Amino acid sequence: MVSSCHQLHIFFFPYMAHGHMIPIVDLAKLFALRGLKTTIITTCLNAPLISKTIQRTKDLGIDIDIQILKFPSVEAGLPEGCENLDSITSYDDGSLELIFKFLKATTLLQEPLEKLLQDCQPDCLVADLQFPWATDAADKFGIPRLVFKGTCFFSLCTLECIRLYEPHKKVTSDSEPFVLTNLPGDIKMTRKQLPDDLIQDFETDYSKLMKEIAESELRSFGIIVNSFYEVEPAYVDYYKKALGKRAWPIGPVSLCNGGIDDKAQRGKEASISENECLKWLDSKKRNSVIYICFGSMVNFSASQLMEIAKALEASGQEFIWVVRREKKNKKDEEDWLPKGFEERIERKGLIIRGWAPQVLILNHEAIGGFLTHCGWNSVLEAITAGKPMVTWPVFADHFYNEKLVSEVLQIGVSVGVKEWVAVHGDYVTTEAIEKAITELMVGKEAKEMRSRAKKLGEMATQAVEEGGSSYSNLSALVEEVRSHRHRP
Ligand code: UDP
Question: EC number(s) on record (predicted)?
């Protein structure tokens, strides 16, 4: 007989990339706030990235444990110390090939994970979608495995429709638009906006992984999605009802960060202090600043960065621009900035080299828009803050997210990227960037987009409040895990 006051113990196992670790740590916090025992599994060099968050939750009287696994970098042929995708995508040749090597390395974690599950016997394992083998690992010990998906329902539905109905095979060229068969809305895409491996008929490493992910999902307890019902009701319903998936929208998870420190200290250590950042923003007018950031993996060439710099200057807008490049020496000439750029934009712009406190920035009233690569966390954080976007998709699920933002929600201006290019992106000209920035920041359309975005932001907040849709979904999920435990 199992006691009904047993405290459920949930394991969280994020993929080692900021876009995956950040929301899963927030998710662990959400479960812990509901009184559940939570443990995050990670590796030695990734642990410091979450230690501050864990310390802050401890100060609130909430304990999140951490368990460390040894990452097999060298065994998998990766450089020693390479434990996070961040280091791979910073290389100039940081390609899909290396990302796959990294993924292969993670499969070696199955055995140590099983040992941990055997020793600790948690009640549930929430593991990243990138770990299809986690379902088998949990199965061995009769532990339900939940899949964490850091994308939106719209993108999940799109991908499934492409797989099921193969609409991309009905067109004769890569640039001819095809309609996404059966998907609500008249959504069109081109083959160029999809990765080659998805549309090729022969099996590749990528298509094999996709198949494994899909199969492991079918055998899992269900899917947790960092989204909320009201932002994409047609697609949540389609995913659950038409496609028959067991899924819980429980986001936006970033809203569990109430204080300034919580908002500012997510992921890596920021390259600017919270005070300095807020002081700069406080000196600006409401909705006057555009924030530009391409997430934690996109790695643009110097010439692409130069186009962005020229567009910013030509647009005349005030801006905060995050660039994933460090300046080693004050006197270093930087090949990605026009001569004299920083002197000329001194009052108008702030360049953050490295890591920015993104959620803190997005929520400031001076921010009027966000130029984003459309990583789902960034998109959802912007929606939550009520900010419209310039959409600049690069790879991964970005092109689907762009469609949701610009066509379904109508809170975005597309910069016009045509092609899916891993990590380095398709080339965009100064003129196209300047035009999109101006459309986002100035004029009647801009105002309307901002007002739509603001409403969505309010809905996001309501969704996670007691009685809101995400709040209730999380309660329902916890109950399902609890009753699974009590099954005879
Ligand atoms: N992020 C941040 N500061 C940065 C860059 C990124 O805080 O300078 C955070 C951002 O808030 C988001 C995550 O890193 O939570 C990036 O996830 P996303 O899905 O947007 O993109 P990815 O990095 O996976 O491409």
Answer: 2.4.1.-
Say how many Å lie between the CA of residue 210 and the centre of ligand 1: 23
Q: Which residues are within 8 A (CB) of 272 and not within 5 positions of it... i.e. 6 or more apart?
A: 350, 352, 356, 357
**Torsion angle, CA of 362/366/372/376, rounded to 10 degrees?**
20
Report the distance separating Cα 369 and Cα 372, nearest Å: 9
pLDDT per position as a tens digit, 107-150 = 999 999 999 999 999 999 999 999 999 999 999 999 999 999 99
233-249 burial, b at 16+ Cβ within 10 Å, e below that, comes to eebbebbbeebebbbbb
Q: Record the pTM.
A: 0.97
Q: Which residues contact 236 (CB under 8 A, 6 or more apart)?
A: 153, 227, 229, 247, 249
Burial tier of 212 (Cβ tally within 10 Å: 0-12, 13-18, 19+)? middle
Is 296 near ligand 1, meaning CB less than 6 Å away?
yes
pLDDT digits (tens, 9 = 90+) for 364-387: 999 999 999 999 999 999 999 999
Give the separation between CA 383 and CA 381, rounded to whole angstroms: 6
Which of 18, 29, 322, 353 has most ligand 1 atoms within 8 Å of CB, for mutation? 18
Q: Which amino acid does the sequence have at 469? A: S
| 280 in contact with ligand 1, CB cutoff 6 A | no
Specify the fold of 260-324+335-461. Answer: Rossmann fold (3.40.50)
Q: Is the pLDDT of residue 10 over 50?
A: yes
Tell me 17's DSSP state. Answer: S
- Domain topology for 9-255+464-486: Rossmann fold (3.40.50)
200 backbone dihedrals φ, ψ, rounded to 5°: -80, 150
Domains of the chain by residue range: 9-255+464-486, 260-324+335-461
In this predicted structure, the answer to whether residue 90 has a pLDDT above a threshold of 90 is: no
Letter string b/e over residues 341-369, b meaning 16 or more CB atoms within 10 A of that residue's CB: beeebeeebbbbeebbbbbbbbbbebbbb
Residues forming beta bridges with residue 189, ordered by sequence position: 178
User: Ligand 1 centroid to 19 CA: how many Å?
Assistant: 5
Of 193-207, 254-268, 319-333, 375-389, which one has max mean pLDDT? Answer: 375-389
- 230 C-alpha vs ligand 1 centroid, how far in Å? 23
